[in-house]
Design a protein that fits this description.
This protein is α/β, with parallel strands linked by helices and 319 residues long. It is 31% helix and 25% strand. The chain contains nine helices and 14 strands. Strand 9 and strand 10 form a beta hairpin. Helix 3 packs across helix 4. The radius of gyration is 18 Å and the shape is globular.
């Protein structure tokens, strides 16, 4: 059975930047209040003429260019998103059309904040099964469309963006030093607590029970993340980077510390981008790679968590 690996990444954010001071002019908040509670300074917000599939296509095109591939080389497109307003055509089908692809399989995956790591696992499994050879996996969300801009506890969190990964078959994976390009996924959920993160109503609006999510993330997730490393055969102290869902700096830092990745770079893109849901992990990783902060082939823990109180993680080799 062949393995798979991430060979290239790309990311995209709308040009408009919303600062904490901008938000203070809209709701009862301040830069100090936001920074002290969630660690966010800025977020990018798309306009009405920038739909989710456009953000996704920009990120996907950059990943393809970095991989040296043509759109026609891709036979599977997966888009993780929870902010697609239309049901059909799917975001993945629209991305394939925007990029003038041939006839790839197209699927959207909605697991909210852990959508990208779920989609990456699906791509890995599909390639391992021989049903695809090259996949474009994208996390894209336009959280500004579902924000309640009158609720200071949630609107300060949210941003828009997309991140993409090109995943290819890797026949040498079983014999690759340090393990496969994409390690085994560990995923699951806490269905009885699913209402702690919601996108509901007409029009849909984002809401959450912040304290419940914080307690769950900081107490229950670190042992699961350590088990992800165990499945990959990588000790936490050997990780080169940890890229958690960029939910809140007050969640990212304690979870990373409890994992025990003492030598790893911890992604903190949330400070500049806010919570971009399914886009947050691939976008943060793409920026680390673009800045040359993680060596090619180094082990990186990706761990998504959030809506449905779901989680999914894997250790990958950095492209």
């Amino acid at each position: 059975m062949t393995g798979s690996r991430v060979v290239a990444l790309g990311h995209y954010q709308p040009a408009k930047v919303l600062t904490n001071d901008d938000l203070a002019a809209m709701v009862d908040t301040s830069d100090e209040w936001i920074t002290s509670r969630v660690g966010i300074k800025t977020r990018h917000v798309g306009g009405p003429d920038e739909p989710v599939d456009e953000l996704a296509a920009h990120a996907g095109a950059k990943a393809l260019a970095a991989a040296g591939l043509q759109p026609s080389d891709i036979d599977l497109v997966l888009v993780a998103t929870s902010t697609a307003i239309d049901r059909s055509p799917s975001m993945s089908a629209r991305v394939a059309a925007r990029l003038s692809m041939g006839s790839p399989a197209v699927m959207d995956i909605n697991v909210v904040c852990s959508g990208f790591t779920h989609a990456l696992a699906v791509a890995d499994h599909t390639i391992r099964a021989g049903a695809a050879t090259r996949a474009l996996v994208i996390g894209a969300d336009k959280m500004a469309d579902i924000a309640d801009w009158t609720d200071r506890t949630t609107c300060v969190l949210l941003g828009d963006g997309a991140g993409a990964a090109v995943v290819t078959a890797d026949p040498s994976a079983p014999d690759t030093p340090g393990g496969p390009g994409i390690g085994p996924v560990l995923w699951g959920s806490v269905p009885e607590m699913g209402n702690a993160v919601r996108i509901e109503g007409t029009p849909p609006r984002f809401a959450q029970e912040g304290q419940s999510v914080y307690r769950w993330a900081t107490t229950q997730l670190p042992p699961i993340a350590r088990k992800v490393c165990e499945r990959a055969g990588v000790a936490p102290e050997d990780l080169a980077a940890v890229v958690l869902h960029q939910a809140n700096l007050r969640i990212i830092e304690p979870v990373a510390r409890k994992i025990g990745a003492v030598n790893a770079i911890i992604a903190r893109d949330v400070v500049d981008s806010g919570n971009t849901s399914a886009a947050s992990i691939p976008m943060a990783l793409s920026k680390l790679v673009e800045r040359g902060e993680v060596a090619s082939g180094a082990p990186v823990l990706l761990f998504g968590f959030g809506g449905n109180l779901s989680y999914a993680g894997q250790v990958i080799r950095c492209p």
